[in-house]
Amino acid sequence: MTSTMPFAARIQTDPALHIRTATEPLEISQLRAILDQEHYLKAGRPAGHVLWQGVYQQDPEDRSDKLVAVLCWAGAAKRLKDRDTWIGWDAVTCANRLKLVVQLRRFVVPEGSRRPNLASQCLGLGLRQLADAWQEKHGYRPLLAESFHDPAVHQGTLYKVTNWTPLGFTKGFQRHRADFYQDLQSPKQLWMRPLQKNAQQLLGQPGSLPEEHRQGIAEATCGARSALSCNALRSLKDAFNQVDDPRNPKNRRHPLRALLGMLTYGLLCGAPDVKAIWAKCGPLNQHQRAAIGLTRRHPVSGQLLLPGYDALNDIVNQINPHSLAHAINQWLTANSDLLPKSLALDGKDLGGKGKLGALVTLCHHHTGAPLVMRTYSGEKNDCELPVSQTLLKQGAPVLVNAVITGDALNAQKKRHSSSPPPGPTTTSPSRTTSPPSTPSRRKS
Asked: Is residue 248 domain-shared with residue 358, that is, in the same domain?
């Protein structure tokens, strides 16, 4: 495959250099040992999909190979404000497509092999081979590479000469265990590197991606990453403080505002029914579960427990839909950003030719992030167009009043089932999916 890397023609690579992807445990152990000896951060523990590359130089006399550089690629950082803004991601799209970004976790040229221009040649060689090697190993082509440098250690000259883009500094936190972070008070410089010319456009635009990238998109059933930040989840929980609890006081295992927050979170993620909403909430980690208001803990581990499917199903059938709609609309109005210059309409049918309910969403054209929603019940051809016209004709007042109607929420009610559907797993490596979308989205 022809390389599209813009720096490929600028850096003259030594013909004696060649790169090899490490696949055998012994070879990977050797590369890790070099990092432990030569890199100031050691080898560490890469997360997500991992790719090890070794750059070798052939000795002209005995034709033997000498290791002159080690590169370790792994999964991208969970959230980076500057990166996500640069791409044009909302939180849902970021969670859905994050695997298409790979991170250069470690790069080192051993002390005994260093010479002028060798590091830039090795990094350039690694970048040119990265997409193909990643696809061969993991089944999909990444679109973007990210990396960091510590200004207290070096100046980042290597990234400059290989045409990476600087995007500001991190806040200085380091991931520690599953759900915790340590404040190291050591901000790092963030660098981004497209792996093909239209990488930024592909990552940020709505709609489907080319086939070679689709295996890197999160599955639609659940996700390991929340579509909302903890601050947003806390504000969502507080939005339901004034909603009356219809349950028997003796049968309130979980706070009402946590259950309603979960329902709203699932709807914003595009879940069409209670089963899908429950699946969307399953991967929320401990910080996110606390932020949304859950309080019950496992008696042994102390971990916050997710309500069962029946708990969500019951509250949907008991809650006053008009009171819930009012609270949701107030939250949407209070937390919506400046309106975009262009919007899109997106319709989804829950089945039964519209008899089971349907949803029309007015959303950001470029990101797919939902702004307001209206549901209806009936034939699509008879109902969807009038609902859409209402959203468009009312314009700004519709956005201010955020139309999720109480009658529409009745369409979400489900009959009690004798047994719940198969539950979501909280250890899945997949990520939350984007809001409902169709290939034929219509601009307003």
From this structure: yes
- Note the pLDDT tens digit of each residue in 99-111: 999 999 999 999 9
User: Is 62 buried (19+), middle (13-18) or exposed (0-12) by CB count in 10 A?
Assistant: exposed
Domain residues for the domain of 400 are: 230-443
Is residue 432 a contact partner of residue 290, using CB atoms and an 8 Å limit? no
Q: What is the DSSP string of 111-152?
A: GGG--TTHHHHHHHHHHHHHHHHHHHHHSS---EEEEEE-TT
Determine, yes or no, domain membership for 6.
no
Residue 238 sits in the same domain as residue 129: no
> Which amino acid belongs to residue 26?
L
Q: Which residues of 239-268 are buried (b: 16+ CB within 10 A; e: fewer)?
A: bbeebebebeeeeeebbbbbbbbbbbbbbb
Give the tens place of pLDDT for each residue, 17-72. 899 999 999 999 999 999 999 998 898 888 889 999 999 988 877 778 889 999 99
Residues with Cβ < 8 Å from 337, sequence gap 6 or more?
Answer: none
Cβ neighbours around 313 below 10 Å, total: 21
List of the chain residues with pLDDT < 50: 1-10, 176-181, 220-224, 338-341, 395-408, 414-444
Task: Please state, as a whole number, how many other Cβ atoms lie within 10 Å of the Cβ of residue 212.
Answer: 13
